[in-house]
Amino acid sequence: MAIKTDEKELVKQAKAGDFKSFTKLIENYQQKIFGFALKMAKNREDAEDIFQETFLKAVDNIQKFRGDASFGTWLYRIAINIIRAKYGRENKKELLPLEDYLPIKHGDHSAHVPQLFDWNDPLSKLTNDEINTKIKAALSELPQKYQLPFLLRYTQELSVQEVADTLKLSLAATKSRILRARMAMRSSLSGYLSGEDTNVTLS
Questions:
Q1: Does domain 5-87 correspond to CATH entry 2.30.30.100?
Q2: Is 10 within 8 Å of 21 (Cβ atoms)?
């Protein structure tokens, strides 16, 4: 997404050394960046460190911001690089092949397959503390390359194109990773959600 005109002017002024303009840019995104850090971090202390380091790096590198994407996209990239550096050595089990998440596997129509629920509106499920805990646990099991696009799309409400721009992925690869994450998440949560009145359907 191209940078907005008013944001472009703030960036220009910030590059010229206007601290108030930089502060305004930060204020526009601090809540989203911190929320994203909270979802990716192991604890609040780590999230606060990621949040602080993101904006410190933004201050140090504002001259490198070219404006070919929004300032927010640039901030997400910085935060993601910090997260990757912090947790990059952790090994997580790769996701199963996509067909293993489908209701019928390998043509075996006699196999018992649990009902799966779609992930159409994850934000609506975050109001309940117990469900929130389940969701966070399921998310923590995803490899980072699936966690990141999923969270950017559904909790930060970025468009698929913005997610692709932020992660420097092709649109096709971004869509694929989001789909894989959704399938893995609904598979992980299906047993729990089957006892809830979720009113969601497969699509």
A1: no
A2: yes
User: What pLDDT digit, counting tens, does each position of 80-111 carry?
Assistant: 999 988 887 655 656 655 555 445 444 444 44
DSSP state letters, 69-109: S-HHHHHHHHHHHHHHHHHTT---PPPPPGGGGSSS-TT-T
Would you say 146 and 140 are in contact if contact means Cβ atoms under 8 Å apart?
A: no
* Domain ranges within the chain, ordered by starting residue: 5-87, 98-193
How far, CA to CA in Å, does 166 sit from each of 30, 40, 73, 106? Answer: 17, 16, 5, 36
Q: What is the pTM of this model?
A: 0.63
- Name 74's Cβ contacts closer than 8 Å, sequence gap at least 6: 58, 65
Question: Is the domain 98-193 a CATH 1.20.1250.20 member?
Answer: no
Task: Give the integer Cα–Cα distance in Å for 87 and 68.
Answer: 28
Secondary element (H or E) of residue 189: helix 171-193
